[in-house]
């Protein structure tokens, strides 16, 4: 008798199942989005090929970070697995189950509605036969009373009495027939009602109950699967995390320090001690007109230490004025210290040898193909490969000449690279050749306030002999005239040699325009100059500048 309530309850159960399906579906979308974001994050911090970042990953700490990125990529893959498994094992199966459940529910309630309608029809038939029986009984009773009244009346003819009697009999027979029909209908209705309440409806309700219980069991199984899908990837995620820990434990600070030493080792020997220059000796002379005039005439060049004088720079002094233009490095890397130059030359020789080997492999392949064409002319024309073969041979010859050139430079550097202590002996030999050092014949430079070294006129020859190997690289250049000004549009951190750092909004002087390589040479003051990217500054050139300007 709770058919309607059951119908509402089963619909609610299906709604709950669909809500759970929606929940799992949204969880899979979150997992996919999370995996995608992790992959993008890992890709974002991956080193770019053929870039400075790729060189940085020689260090163990950077290698560990790279391993972390790779493990995070695998970690993201496990979240994709979670999404895929939840979709295939839960949402897809449950969606199919819901459709089957809806069809079964519809069929069961259709059977129930049909049984209800049948019972209503039987009830209507019973009520109809009952009313007819009641009506016929009343008609028979009235006919009997009418007959008895006619029979008692002496004024009524015998024929009328007979007619009333026959009418009463007919009505009585109709009442009996209605009674029999009503009894049959009642018996049939009771039987149908018994079957309805004890057979049909219980059977339908049983099917609905089984359907509902299957729904409940299925949602419970789905929740277990939901947990198991997560549990299955935990060991692999654990391995990813173990990989990150292992990479972190592999970091070796000593190894990284050694790499830095090897990368920036110059091969120079430290300079010797600077000797004391005694400027008080002229004060000890006997003061006379001649000596006074002589001291005035001779002392001028000696008292220049307060100003600026051009001198040589040691390559490792912080404020050296090397302004090597980026992208315009000498072919033989002569701008680099000996050790760095040797490494660059060796790297260049290795690259050329690889290119030569590649070209030789290509030549061998073309030669083999030409032989095949000669043996089987139908496959191709051998003469068509002559031009390509000649071109490859020319490339090989060019590369070999280039490699020989760099090998000669490399041999020169390796032969000239001083052993430890050799430069000190060479310097002492120079000093011996020049005689005993005096206050005005010291071969060392004197450091000026801006970090460079100055020297006396009497010392220039000795310093030139000492710095012969590095004159081309480390001579102070004459200051270039300013040809305009510029304003820094963005902050630039000049970390490479030859560049200069600028701050956004800073006004500086332009001393060399962009030559097409994207760099502009600027000056902040007479000690600080270098290159900045042209796109980082807004240049205002002085059209009247003809190279006659000096430091501003």
Automatic annotation (TrEMBL):
Compositional bias segments (type: Basic and acidic residues): 444-461
Stored SUPFAM superfamilies: BAR/IMD domain-like (SSF103657), SH3-domain (SSF50044)
GO biological process, one term: signal transduction
Keyword Cell membrane: yes
Domain F-BAR: 1-256
CDD domains hit by this protein: F-BAR_FBP17, HR1_FBP17
GO molecular function: lipid binding
Annotated InterPro entries: AH/BAR_dom_sf, F_BAR_dom, FCH_dom, FNBP1_F-BAR, HR1_rho-bd, HR1_TOCA, SH3-like_dom_sf, SH3_domain
Residue ranges that the Swiss-Prot or TrEMBL entry lists as coiled coil: 342-369
Record key words, sorted: Cell membrane, Coiled coil, Cytoplasm, Cytoskeleton, Endocytosis, Lipid-binding, Membrane, Phosphoprotein, SH3 domain
Domain annotation SH3: ranges: 481-542
Assigned GO CC terms: cell cortex; cytoskeleton; plasma membrane
Keyword Membrane among UniProt keywords: yes
Region (Disordered) location: 420-461
Stored Pfam families: FCH, HR1_TOCA, SH3_1
REM-1 domain ranges (all copies): 335-412
Cell compartment(s), UniProt: Cell membrane; Cytoplasm, Cell cortex; Cytoplasm, Cytoskeleton
Family: Belongs to the FNBP1 family.
Name assigned to this protein: Formin binding protein 1
UniProt source species: Marmota marmota marmota
């Amino acid at each position: 008798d709770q058919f309607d309530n059951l119908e509402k309850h089963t619909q609610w159960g299906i709604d709950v199942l669909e809500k759970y399906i929606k929940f799992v579906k949204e969880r899979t979308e979150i997992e996919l989005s999370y995996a995608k974001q992790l992959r993008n994050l890992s890709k974002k911090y991956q080193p770019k090929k053929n870039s400075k970042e790729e060189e940085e990953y020689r260090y163990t700490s950077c290698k560990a970070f790279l391993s972390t990125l790779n493990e995070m990529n695998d970690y993201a893959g496990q979240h994709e697995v979670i999404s895929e498994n939840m979709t295939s094992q839960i949402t897809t199966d449950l969606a199919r189950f819901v459709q089957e459940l809806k069809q079964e529910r519809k069929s069961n309630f259709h059977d129930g509605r049909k049984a209800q309608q049948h019972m209503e029809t039987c009830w209507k038939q019973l009520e109809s036969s009952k009313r007819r029986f009641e009506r016929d009984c009343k008609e028979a009773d009235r006919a009997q009373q009418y007959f008895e009244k006619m029979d008692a009346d002496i004024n009524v003819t015998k024929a009328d009495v007979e007619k009333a009697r026959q009418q009463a009999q007919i009505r009585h027979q109709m009442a009996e027939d209605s009674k029999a029909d009503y009894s049959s209908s009642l018996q049939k209705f009771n039987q149908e009602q018994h079957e309805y309440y004890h057979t049909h409806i219980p059977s339908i309700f049983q099917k609905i109950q089984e359907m509902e219980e299957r729904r409940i069991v299925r949602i419970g199984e789905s929740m277990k699967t939901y947990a198991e899908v997560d549990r299955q990837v935990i060991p692999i995620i654990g391995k990813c995390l173990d990989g990150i820990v292992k990479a972190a434990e592999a970091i070796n600070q000593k190894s990284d320090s050694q790499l830095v030493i090897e990368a920036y080792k110059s091969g120079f020997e430290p300079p010797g001690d600077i000797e004391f220059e005694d400027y008080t000796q002229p004060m000890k002379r006997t003061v006379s007109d001649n000596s006074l005039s002589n001291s005035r005439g001779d002392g001028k060049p000696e008292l220049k230490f307060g100003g600026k004088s051009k001198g040589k720079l040691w390559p490792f002094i912080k404020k050296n004025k090397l302004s090597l233009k980026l992208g315009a490095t000498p072919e033989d890397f002569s701008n680099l210290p000996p050790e760095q130059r040797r490494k660059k030359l060796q790297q260049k020789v290795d690259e050329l040898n690889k290119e030569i080997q590649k070209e030789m492999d290509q030549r061998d392949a073309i030669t083999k193909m030409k032989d095949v064409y000669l043996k089987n002319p139908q496959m191709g024309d051998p003469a068509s490969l002559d031009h390509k073969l000649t071109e490859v041979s020319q490339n090989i010859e060019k590369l070999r000449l280039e490699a020989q050139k760099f090998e000669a430079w490399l041999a020169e550097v390796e032969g000239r690279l001083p052993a430890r202590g050799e430069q000190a002996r060479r310097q002492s030999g120079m000093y011996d050749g020049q005689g005993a050092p005096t206050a005005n014949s010291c071969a060392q430079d004197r450091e000026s306030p801006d970090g460079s070294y100055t020297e006396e006129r009497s010392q220039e020859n000795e310093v030139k002999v000492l710095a012969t190997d590095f004159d081309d690289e480390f001579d102070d250049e004459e200051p270039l005239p300013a040809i305009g000004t510029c304003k820094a549009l963005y902050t630039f951190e000049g970390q490479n040699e030859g560049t200069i750092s600028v701050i956004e909004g800073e006004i500086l002087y332009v001393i060399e325009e962009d030559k097409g390589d994207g760099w502009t040479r600027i000056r902040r003051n007479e000690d600080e100059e270098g290159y900045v990217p042209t796109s980082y500054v807004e240049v205002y050139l002085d059209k009247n500048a003809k190279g006659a300007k000096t430091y501003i």
